[in-house]
Amino acid sequence: MVSSSHEAMHRIFQDYPGLFSRVSEALSIPFPRATAVSVLPNDVTETKPVDRRIDTLLRIDTQDHGPFLLAVEAQKKKDPEKPASWGYYLAYLRSKYRLPPLLLVVCQDRATAEWATRPEPIGFFSWPSLTVRPIVAGPHNMPVITDPEEARADLALTALAAITHAAGPEVGAILKALSTALRDVPEDVADPIIEFTAQGLGDRPAKHLWRNLVAVDLSFYKSYLSEEIRDEGRAQGRAQGRAEDVLLVLEQRGVEVSREVRRRVTECADHDVLRTWLTRAVTAAKAEEIFGES
Fold first, then answer.
1. Cα separation of 2 and 9, whole Å?
2. Would you say which domain of life the source belongs to (predicted)?
3. Tens of pLDDT along the chain (294 residues)?
4. Which residues is 128 bridged to in the sheet?
């Protein structure tokens, strides 16, 4: 089972090895289409006691250009020491496997993504012997997929889009498109997507929206996550939790919530009404629109 947001950001490439091809297309970075992908050991430890591990390492074969290595790193914040480690990884992989390595860094906030995008020269003065230039996927360039049909066409890419946009105002619409798309797929296909998305959102407010969307849109599933959601709902009180979720979604999207709207939502005890308000909160331009009043 995926155990953290960090894990989901890179492990999704292991479970859906062809995902890199679609990510590169989404980022408008041309690469040859993969013909085969295999997960390689991620241990790049030296003989001396220094433990170094790439988050995920893949070998990707292409039809016309041969194989290459893809190192996927999940980066949650700026780290001035990280480019040196990335340079080490790339040099080590080139030396060990004799294949061209690429580095993909997955981020969840724009500042970290923009920092990771900057080329890092390794050398002296004006002569870099090595330049670390990762491909970066984050909220600054990942697609905002809000059409259920588009989401259904590529569930893994949509899950990664939701993860990278987890802190942004677009996440609600992406999650709604994903939950709608998952209604029509087998449970064994939906379960890992549900799990990766839930873990990738971490402790952000969008996590509560996703749990409610799974509980409502995918209530017929009997997966571990779905059962966990239903157990939590019973323990916390469905109406109170749903009212909090309505307000969280509005606030997460940057919609101003007046005192009157907050009072009306928190005082409502009708679960069906709150469910309707939660659905409207995903797209409402103004908080008052959730009530559906002209």
1. 10
2. Bacteria
3. 556 888 899 989 888 988 988 898 898 888 888 888 888 888 877 656 556 789 999 999 998 899 999 999 999 999 999 999 999 999 999 999 999 999 999 999 999 999 999 999 988 777 888 899 999 999 999 999 999 999 999 999 999 999 999 999 999 999 999 999 998 888 889 889 998 999 999 888 898 888 888 877 666 665 666 566 555 545 445 566 778 889 888 988 889 999 899 889 888 878 788 889 988 888 888 989 898 864
4. 123
Q: How far is CA 138 from CA 77, 87, 287, in A?
A: 12, 21, 28
My answer on whether 45 and 160 are in the same domain is: no
- Total domains in the chain come to 2
Could you list the residue range(s) of the whole structural domain that residue 13 is in?
A: 5-137
| CA 161, 279, 205, 220 torsion-angle sign | negative
Tell whether 169 is covered by a domain: yes
Give the global pTM. 0.69
Domain membership flag for residue 72: yes
For strand 56-62 and strand 68-75, is the pairing parallel, antiparallel, or unpaired?
antiparallel
Residues 103 and 226 in one domain: no
